[in-house]
Design a protein that fits this description.
The structure is a homodimer of 210-residue chains.
Chain A lengths: L23 H14 L7 E8 L2 E8 L2 E3 L2 E7 L3 H8 L2 E8 L4 E11 L2 H10 L2 H9 L5 E2 L2 H17 L8 E15 L7 E8 L2 E7 L2
């Protein structure tokens, strides 16, 4: 099979400067909601990129909240991404909703949310996920899968008796955006790209060449 | 709808150190092939991240070739990503095949392929895509969509008479990997993460904590 021949013409939707909400976070919620209504698989999965030694690093993360200030996700603060954010908190987010021929590109800074907010989310998770967060030394090299399974078994026994407590090194980040771009695939690669950039506290809207 | 409650348990497949191909590019081809066979929508779409002013930037790009040296995609060399790569060619790639509960993370350097190789791919594209590549000033701000459509109309008339020629500023990059990680979702967030890192010309295989 020749990969070069994988080619799709995008004909589903259009995006116009006149139709977008003037607040890009509201516009994001609109598209996100359409992704949920369309029953897309994990519509809240996005590619999070950080910087390490002057190189980008990327991984998939799940969006857990959107509010007026930005986009919230949770992780181990000692994970590779956590360490990278502690040195340079510039990040980018990329949401891809292929079935809707849509992409949202976000750039901004990541900041830790409060311990209280992290608690609220941590204790709302199923107990299995709470234990998973306690057990995993995210991104560290491990000798074998069995070590991981054993640690989980021991923890599961332990937390039949006591209640899990959120580890201090596990919590949320909010990404405060300075740029949000909405990309709608169009025919003949004349895609619609509407970009919002924060300039002196106001969102400037532009159309970009595809 | 509460985004925090979007939660999936991954149960489809497993990934073991003993089962992976010792060459990560071959292992990538295996997974990529399974994504094609599974009829995933645009299995060759990936998130490409670059660095601009000490911040990561990300966008979706289509993989057009895999060879022993790496991963090839095409773009306008004057686009934002092209300019960024000319300053810092460290990039990351993220492939997400949600239906297979799989992700591949790649880090490496991007290098221009030869003009001849770019020609071969350019002229293999449908004429509409060739004209699209000629017309679009990728990532530049444009006043309105109609300007774009007019430019395309004029070009379409022109190229009814003459043959399109690949612009010098349009061509391919190959990303030569130094790290490739295969992520297979597993139950209770005990995901399998097998990482290949290039050390002194050899691929070192490790399992990472999920």
């Amino acid at each position: 099979m020749n990969i070069g021949e994988l080619r799709q013409d995008y004909k589903k939707e259009t995006l116009d400067e006149k139709d977008v909400n003037q607040n890009p976070i509201e516009q994001f919620k609109l598209w996100f909601n359409e992704a949920i209504i369309s029953k897309l698989l994990e519509p809240n999965a996005f590619c999070l990129s950080t910087i390490h030694n002057n190189s980008p690093e990327s991984r998939i993360v799940l969006l857990k909240e959107i509010n007026d200030n930005g986009f919230v996700f949770f992780t181990n603060y000692n994970s590779a991404k956590g360490k990278q954010i502690s040195i340079n908190n510039n990040v980018s987010l990329n949401f891809l909703w292929l079935e809707l021929e849509r992409q949202v590109r976000i750039e901004g800074v990541a900041e830790k949310i409060s311990a209280l907010e992290s608690d609220i989310y941590f204790y709302s998770r199923p107990i299995g996920s709470q234990i998973g967060a306690i057990v995993s030394e995210q991104s560290e090299i491990i000798e074998s899968r069995s070590i991981l399974e054993e640690a989980l078994n021991i923890a599961e026994q332990k937390y039949k008796i006591e209640k899990p407590i959120r580890p201090e090194h596990w919590g949320g980040y909010i990404v405060k955006p300075r740029l949000i771009e909405f990309w709608q695939g169009r025919s003949s690669r004349l895609h619609d790209r509407i970009s919002f950039e924060l300039v002196d506290g106001s969102w400037m809207i532009s159309r970009l060449s595809p």
